[in-house]
Give the backbone structure.
Amino acid sequence: MIKIDRYRCGCCGACVTVCPTEAIDMIGMWIEINEDKCNRCKACVNICPVGALEQEQ
């Protein structure tokens, strides 16, 4: 599961564009991750410029 730190997230959309399974959506000023679609590749974690995403153990 990918955890979102909403206080750090600037809603730049980088994670949305890099997600290979289209599991991340921009809803207003928030991002949401569809855990059913997410394959936990960590592409979003790696591209986030502010470190707002992390993979939980």
Q: What stands out?
A: The chain is about 20% helix and 25% strand. The first strand starts at residue 2 and ends at 4. The mean pLDDT is 95.
